[in-house]
Amino acid sequence: MILLSFDTEEFDVPREHGVDISLEEAMMVSIEGTNRILDVLKQNDVRATFFCTGNFAENAPEVMQRIMREGHEVACHGVDHSQPKATDFVVSKQIVERVTGITVYGYRQPRMFSVSDEEIEKAGYRYNSSLNPAFVPGRYMHLNEPRTWFMKSGVMQIPASVTPWFRFPLFWLALHNLPESLYHRLVRRTLKHDGYFVTYFHPWEFFDLKEHPEFKIPFIIKNHSGREMMQRLDRLIKMLRKQENEFITFNEFVNSR
Length: 257
Prior knowledge:
Radius of gyration: 17 Å
Oligomer: single chain
Shape: globular
């Protein structure tokens, strides 16, 4: 089973590198990227889960409708990606449910930082996918956390997939920078070991970042971005489909367990 997901947020990466960017421009980048993602998924007839910030939901209701219309799951990803607050998991649920008219069951904290599972349960979520169980310098140190799904405070925890032995993270940066053949091999090995595979990307990865030096994006982020990333995602999906893997939403995975 393949759990493909996208952290659907306003493009705030330039702010991490000292560049101010308006919400309007940030949304423009992410809306274009999200539509490109949806095009790839539609062409391959697969479904995914979109973890959406309150900012994105409120400023791109037409894209939210397309996500649902094409059979994907909508989950929550905080409110303002750059300015997380302790109440975001509650407020983002209120915003996303108001915009979409559906009940939201899943949550992922911006930048996969920690969040109270007790509070997540009280807010009515069934699952939390806010854990990358790897060591990523300057970001994560979770080598002692479980690699695969587990229950905590009545909420299913669904970590991002890492390789079985060395816990190499198989998230978005890996597909940007590893040779595709190596990335595919690591994914297949992890999938065979765990029985399922979880990964995540962002809409702005599918925007042509190389054409915008004013954003001051590091090479490892803009490497193979834009249409190249569309092609990489397309080839990843085709490789996994060729092996007869089923693409399911996170909530469907919870139901299966």
